[in-house]
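Incident review: delayed structure delivery

Summary: a single-chain prediction request sat in the queue longer than the usual turnaround. Root cause was a stuck worker, restarted by the on-call engineer. No data loss occurred. The affected request and its eventual output are reproduced below so the record is complete for anyone auditing the incident later.

Affected input:
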Amino acid sequence: MVKNIPDVKLGIVAVSRDCFVLSLSEKRRSAVVAACKAKGIDVFEAKTTVENEADMLKSVEEVKAAGCNALFVFLGNFGPETPETLIAKNFCGPVMFAAAAEESAYGAGGCDLIDGRGDAYCGMLNCSYNLGLRKIPAIIPEYPVGTAEDLAGMVADFIPVARALIGLSQLKLITFGPRPQDFFACNAPIKGLYDIGVEIEENSELDLLVSYKAHANDPRIADVVKDMAAELGADANQYPDFLPRMAQHEITLLDWAEKHKGARKYVAFANKCWPAFPGEFGFEPCYVNSRLASRGMPVSCEVDIYGALSEYIGACITGDAVTLLDINNSVPRDLYEKDIKGSTKYKLSDTFMGFHCGNTPFCKLRKEKNTAVKYQLIQHRLLEPKGSDPDFTRGTLEGDIAAGPITFFRLHGNADGQLQAYIAQGEVLPAATHSFGGIGIFAIPEMGRFYRHVLIAKHYPHHGGVAFGHWGKAFYTVFKYLGVCDVAYNQPAGVLYKTENPFA
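Output delivered after worker restart:
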């Protein structure tokens, strides 16, 4: 089993302004740790409370020695602004800052707003100001002040964000082949990758073909075939004789990742998959791509480098399988009227079909009779003799995507080399698509306007990442931390986009 996303080991360091009572910050720190434990979150509690720069160095060494790769700097009281911000500068990993709320004006022991007042609300202002002066990136929650229980909730929100940032810091994107002629929309100015700390290795399709042929008769193929058959079951395994070709390809990619990741820990692929691929390799790679995506190693279609990057971010945030789909076609009005209108709040223009040939993981498809490994209809039409049975165009994983909440998203390098992103939460509807490929009917509030004034107006390509569940809050935090200035979302009705005609 591939383990291609990081585990987060979170530490907490309390800070205390030297004119405040040190024990106040320590007591509150312990309460936060207990609240996290009650939520099932394990947090390493550093015993060094930071009042000065010497304490700062000691606390950083303490959490590093404990193996922490993410950190919560907790303002249990006002906090010393220079040492507390230097913690983030000296710690190698994502850092969240948040502060303690005051606890009581009418406690059992009397008023707690004299010796028990921490002034951390004020302290967060100085902290953020100092972070800005030093240009130190940090995570600050939407409302970064709270009780122990509130702060435990902030920690829960921080962990998927930290997982994505840690993963990106150790990610290498590996590509095979140039983008197809008519898919320049997936252009990839790679400077933006280096700006966020991602490495890239670009290869030829020929490199992959040579490696694939070298894996012929690999003794591991039989075990992968068994695993594929077990995943698919009898109904979805329509071409059992075909599985060895795909198993050989899966082993080829995994071996390449292991041998080529170099100084990095994690890998994602962006691979060319047509028009030459099926004829030369003897299969379509879609099902293999779906399997690796389900294990945290996404393989984007059509050498979509920023698609692969987006998928990897989604895998880290959710800890779950993700997919990459074309924002593909509108929903026919008669289908909408018959199967959607009466049972949902969505307008026809809120709906669309997300599609790709067959790269969506099996675990995210409806388990119906038409869900199976099939052949790529369009490629069969183009590449194989007319009227013939499909051969090398087999290998797609087709079926309707299971209904449920989703987040559609993309981090993209535009034509000017600048990073931009979008996020839109919605759902996959239970209505049948009556179509082919890995496909679903998606509904996103005000999708029609979002399509026109974000996707079209800002020149996004046709591919979007899909995370299963509503994860917009985490995606937004990650993108802003990475320095993405333009993070778009689907504006609600009545809130105009800059390019929107107010008289339309």
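Verification: The chain has two domains: 10-168, 170-489.
Action items: add queue-age alerting; document worker restart procedure.
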